[in-house]
Amino acid sequence: MVTPTVLGLARAWAELPAPDLASLRVEVAGDLRASFGRPLTRLAPAGLGLIGLPRWQGKRFRAGTGEGLAGVNLVRRRDGALAEVLPMRAAIGPSLADGRPAVVVAYAADAPRPWCWVRDELRQRPDGTLLGMTWVDVPLLRRLPGTPFLLTPSA
User: Fold this and answer.
1) Residues 84, 85, 91, CA angle at the centre, nearest 5°?
2) Which of 75, 76, 72 is nearest to 86 (CA)?
3) 93 within some domain
4) What is the pLDDT of residue 140?
């Protein structure tokens, strides 16, 4: 399979629909395995390690309270096991990019920096993978283009 480019992923964002929240639950999708478009395949994992997500593997969502989902990020520990870190909440909401629906993933206000300012958004590609876009949701920085990543269901 050809690794998509960051530019190609960013261009595709506007055309994609928001996935159904229930389809993201671990009971349906399994763990959502992370990957990156070229040229971020090596740069993004190193950068994430510097800001608190070393060896990031993806995300896992479960039913939450209300209509949203509770989630965690998955990192590979040095012993090879997966660990759940950096809790998050997911709900359908308007995208920062275009106002259209997306799954908005938010981290707690008391999460470590920079995660308290990070907002991930998810939309579904035709092949079933999820295209994620990460924004830093603070004045001025939220106007910058999002950083794309892919999440592939393991189920």
Assistant:
1) 95
2) 72
3) yes
4) 73
Task: Find the domain containing 97 and state its range.
Answer: 18-153
Residue 141 lies in a domain: yes
Report the C-alpha gap between 118 and 135 in whole angstroms.
Answer: 6
Whole-prediction pTM value? 0.90
Task: Report the alpha-carbon distance of residue 3 to residue 39 in Å, rounded.
Answer: 9
By the 8 A CB rule, do 91 and 69 touch? Answer: yes
Q: Is 56 within a domain?
A: yes
Extended strands (E) in 78-146 = 82-94, 101-107, 118-124, 130-136
| Residue 136 confidence (pLDDT) | 87
Closest CA to 111 of 53, 35, 59: 53
Number of separate domains in the chain: 1
The length of the chain is: 155
